[in-house]
Specification:
This protein is of the alpha+beta class. Helix content is about 40%, strand content about 15%. The protein has a domain at about 35-165: NADH Oxidase (3-Layer(aba) Sandwich). It binds flavin mononucleotide. Flavin mononucleotide (FMN) binds near residues 39, 132, 133, 134 and 173.
């Protein structure tokens, strides 16, 4: 009996020592963040701190852009009336990501989309929830956002990212599907 207790204690010590020696790396944290993000559509009324808004904007602007043209503009919306006019879901904050057609002739949508993904991932890393809601290419929605935010003609709103503190944990979808991958030629196997 004594031997068994001793072995159990040793096993526990070995387990903790082993885990202490292998702390989670930054790489694990980045991958975790990507793999556990999910769209959030219901929020508490808690306001998003200005520092977190700036962190999301900094992340957005860290995205790659075609020829480094940075063909984008970000409109931060906290005004309740304006939020109501452009929101699919009620939240204390939205960031409208626009493509700038004066800075990037045809690749503004790629620039704006990559910035948007960075914003979505950063929201998740900061304990916030977010969802991309569609604007472009729906003409009626573009006009509504354009009018509400008084956007100049050269800016095209690509999406409205709805952001806030999640009211509940969202379900993460497993989208891994090897059928969506080919090797070397379409349908080619590994
Ligand atoms: C181009 C695009 C348009 C989307 N439009 C909407 C939308 O209008 N409303 C909405 O609730 N979610 C929208 N979404 C979010 C998707 O529904 C969501 O990403 C998808 O169901 C996968 O779920 P996940 O984000 O939780 O992984 C959009 C996402 C993308 C990329």
């Amino acid at each position: 009996m004594k031997t068994r207790s001793f072995l159990t204690v040793m096993a526990l010590l070995a387990f903790f020592a082993c885990n202490a020696q292998t702390p989670r790396s930054d790489k694990d944290a980045v991958l975790d963040n990507i793999l556990t993000r999910a769209s959030v559509r219901s929020f508490t009324s808690k306001a998003v701190e200005p520092e977190k808004v700036e962190t999301m904007l900094r992340s957005g602007m860290a995205a790659p852009t075609a020829m480094n043209k940075q063909a984008w503009h970000f409109v931060v919306v906290t005004d309740k009336t304006k939020l109501k006019a452009i929101q699919q879901y009620e939240s204390p904050l939205a960031i409208v990501v626009c493509g700038d057609t004066m800075k990037g002739k045809d690749l503004w949508i790629a620039d704006a989309s990559l910035a948007s993904e960075n914003i979505l991932l950063t929201a998740h890393a900061l304990g916030l929830g977010a969802v991309w809601t569609a604007v472009y290419p729906r003409e009626e929605t573009i006009q509504n956002v354009r009018k509400t935010l008084q956007l100049p003609d050269h800016l095209i709103p690509v999406n409205t990212i709805i952001i806030g503190y999640p009211a509940a944990d969202p379900q993460v979808k497993d989208k891994w599907n090897p059928e969506n991958i080919s090797y070397n030629t379409y349908g080619g196997k590994k």
